[in-house]
Design a protein that fits this description.
Elements lengths: L2 E10 L1 H5 L2 H16 L10 E7 L2 E7 L6 H10 L1 H13 L8 E13 L23
Antiparallel strand pairs: 1-3, 1-4, 2-3
Helix pairs in contact: 2-4
Length: 136
């Protein structure tokens, strides 16, 4: 199985970053460090980082060893604020990052998913759409 973590790093110009391949690779490396520091013993080679436009949208895909997916997802959830803080601090401290920064670097949003894993909370849309009054 795999766990997908989607988050956004604001304050970095994606188009400027992709022009600087070395810096782009450094950002990816720091993103990996920021997440894996909270997953003791997790092998770095089992973690992939994709960066997309939209400030910097980060898709971190983890491939835990068989039988450890749910415990790794619990660890990620436990350390949500630590991971977001680590992302901002580590990427902000990269040499040359100021060349692509468009403001203060802040991580926001923390969306975990795993294909084939039953979500712990089922969200069902209410009839009437968003903002509908709950029936009493």
């Amino acid at each position: 199985g795999q766990a997908n973590l989607l988050t956004v790093l604001m304050g970095i110009d994606y188009n400027a970053l992709v022009q600087k391949q070395t810096l782009l690779q450094d950002v990816k490396a720091q993103v990996k460090v920021a997440v894996l520091r909270w997953l003791p013993g997790f092998p770095g080679r089992r973690c992939e980082v994709e960066i997309c436009a939209g400030s910097l949208r980060l898709l971190i895909t983890l491939f835990p060893l068989p039988g450890t997916l749910e415990s790794r997802i619990r660890q990620l959830k436990q350390h949500e604020s630590d991971i977001l803080n680590s992302l901002a601090v580590l990427v902000s401290s990269l040499p040359g990052i100021e060349q692509v920064a468009s403001g203060q670097i802040v991580a926001s949003g923390f969306h975990l998913s795993s294909p084939g894993m039953t979500p712990t909370v089922q969200l069902t849309p209410r009839p009437g759409g968003a903002g509908a009054e709950p029936s009493t």
